[in-house]
Amino acid sequence: MDVYDAYKTPLNLLEDEERTILELKGALEIPPQDVQDELIDAFFSWVAPVLPVVNQKVFLSMYKDPLNPPSLLLLQAIFLAGSRVVGENNRENQSSSAAHSSMIYLQRAKALYDAEFEKDRITVIQSLLLMSWYWQGTEDTTENGLFYWSRLAIGVAQNFGMHESNELDMSLSERRLWRRIWWTLYTRDRAMAAAYGRPISIDTDLTNVDPITQDDFIEGEGHQPDSVRVQFFIQYVKLCELMDLVVGRRRKTGPLTESEFAQWEIRLSQWMIQCPEQMHWSQARHNFWPAILHSIFYTMVCQLHALLPAVARPSASSAVALQAGSTIASIMQAIVSHGQRCQKSKSYF
Predict the structure, then answer these.
(1) Longest CA span, the chain
(2) Do the beta carbons of residue 223 and residue 59 sit within 8 Å?
(3) Do 304 and 265 touch, CB atoms closer than 8 A?
(4) What is the pLDDT of residues 90-120, one digit of tens each?
(5) How confident is the model over 155-201, as pLDDT tens digits?
(6) Alpha carbons 28 and 24: distance in angstroms, whole number
(7) What is the Cα–Cα distance from 64 to 321, expressed in whole angstroms?
(8) Bridge partner list, 29
(9) Alpha-carbon distance 301 to 305, whole Å?
(10) Cα gap 36→100, rounded to integer Å
């Protein structure tokens, strides 16, 4: 499906050669309507709670308006993110597989980004973050990898000044989205550093963005956001703040001291105690988002105990780490048994 008519104005601003390149790379093509709907629904259901950078109410309103469509770059990025979590049962034949190919949507979004098709900087940052949902494994250091796009999104955001609380000239809805985007950048930065040993890009000593709150997820008058998804992200931010302990310790020389270990254990215990009841997970009352949240928590517990020197590691530490690993396995089993494919959960770590 060609989108030239819907985006005629920005396309006419491009040089003929640039427009031809976009056409050759398929950047002006979008999938059939039913596939679009499926990918957008998958995005808001399974990706947006982790990357809450798009105002769903505004986006869907524009998506349904042929005279005022959403950004083509953002649309292709949403298709990319949604395609990463669409169930395998939708890829039974070759044509369906092509329609759900993440690489195709990545190439289209990348072509639009390289052509500077999108001029709005907030939209560019949103799109770059969604492009970071593409994942080929920890060895992928090319322009197709989550590390590349996440770092690029952070750099563009910092260049734009998103790390500073200069929100006075914004509307209330813009300020709320601004904070959601910034704290999403922060969580991506810390999660990659903690999980893959990458250096951090965001120095919290140089930022003064207000903390994320429940009100930041209100997307318009009368809108009531899903409380579980809201609390998931708020608690995830708090876990990422605790990740600074692990990330910072890796940069130091010498073994972990007993005092440091005790302080970190207390911080993790406090997080668990203060975590809202609705976000607690157990096999008896399984819910996907508390499950993902607690799998991250127990992964951090394992990382903390792994920092202890083997010769100084008490037997109790090994038992705690083993129990944490067992809980993670139970969570993954519950996700699979409830039909929530690991395909949907593997990108959250």
Answers:
(1) 69
(2) no
(3) yes
(4) 544 444 555 568 899 999 999 999 999 999 9
(5) 999 999 999 876 667 888 999 999 999 999 999 999 888 888 788 89
(6) 9
(7) 50
(8) 2
(9) 6
(10) 10
For 41, 65, 258, the CA distances from 176, given in Å and listed in that order, are 22, 24, 41
Phi then psi dihedrals of residue 29, to 5 deg:
-105, 140
φ, ψ dihedrals at 2, nearest 5°: -85, 145
* Amino acid at residue number 93: N
pLDDT in tens, 190-223: 988 888 878 889 998 899 999 999 999 999 888 8
Both structure tokens of 199: 């250096």
Query: Residue 5 carries which side chain, given as an amino acid letter?
Result: D
| 342 touches 332 (CB < 8 A) | yes
3 state SS of 29: strand
Paired tokens of 206 = 């140089």
**Which ranges in the chain belong to alpha helices (H)?**
8-12, 16-24, 33-42, 56-63, 72-83, 94-99, 102-114, 121-131, 146-160, 172-196, 227-250, 258-274, 288-306, 315-337, 342-345
Identify the three-state secondary structure at position 2. Answer: strand
Could you give the CA distance from residue 231 to residue 281 in angstroms, rounded to a whole number?
13
User: Two tokens at 251?
Assistant: 């940069």
Annotate 257-282 with DSSP letters as a single string: PHHHHHHHHHHHHHHHHHS-GGG---
Tens digit of pLDDT for each residue in 240-289? 999 887 776 666 666 677 788 888 889 999 999 999 999 999 988 999 99
Residue 2 bridge partners (DSSP): 29
Burial group, residue 208, by CB count within 10 angstroms (0-12, 13-18, 19+): exposed
291, 337 Cβ separation under 8 angstroms? no
Three-state SS string over 122-153 comes to HHHHHHHHHHCCCCCCCCCCCCCCHHHHHHHH
Which residue in the block uniquely carries the two structure tokens 């000044």? 161
Residue type for position 179: R
Euclidean distance between CA atoms 342 and 222, whole angstroms: 35
**SS3 of 25, please?**
coil
